[in-house]
Amino acid sequence: MEEITGPILEAQGIRKSFDETEILKGISLAVENGDLVSIIGPSGCGKSTFLRCLNFLEIPDAGRISIAGISIDLGELDSPFPPDMKVKAHALRQQVGMVFQGFNLFPHKTILENVMLAPMVVVGSSKDEARSFALSTLEKVGLSALKERYPATLSGGQQQRAAIARALAIKPKVMLYDEPTSALDPELVDEVLKVMRDLDAEGMTQIVVTHEIRFARDASDYIVFMEGGNIIEISDEDEIFENPKDERTKRFLRRFL
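The structure corresponding to this sequence follows.
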């Protein structure tokens, strides 16, 4: 992986409201290059909204986001997203791979075609370049033998690994995952988590919104606990389970311990 000094991702004062409801209340987070960070918390606390704000799938109402040297300072955004910010947001998205809880694969395209499409559309790769890298990426996630299959013929775990390959195909600096295993049967979860562990061993920066508390504890460099649109506590994976500082964190974790 290319060496990067300082945090590869910084979010400062991120706010987001829908109608009159404030979902994110000015939260900040810095992530170092190569870290695997898990974001946990009760449903509806803003975890997924925060993740979507990081790559501007949702436009924050206020704050600053910097990823891999590309910074967007929204200040207090009280007008439609300005054109110059749209250009920056597109450049920022090219540094970020996104994996959703739904696989979002094109059903009429093979797995290989699905993975090839991302670099051709997002970064303008030629068909030959996209095919070559797609093949190596499918090998990385253990799907080379299934490259000509269609999504409907694969298990949920295989489809999610294909979705991870598609996200990796743009050669991102940061991978974001929004509940990547929540749509899977329990016996298929581990095959997806293994891919994420392998990427961590390679030095890929990963931020994972998850309810897989065992994975968060075993694989994370540190864990972020959110509640009510705020980051309540940030700690390493052992400390937050063995000695949580905040009563809200203790209350949430009791159901898993």
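Residues 186-202 form the longest helix (17 residues).
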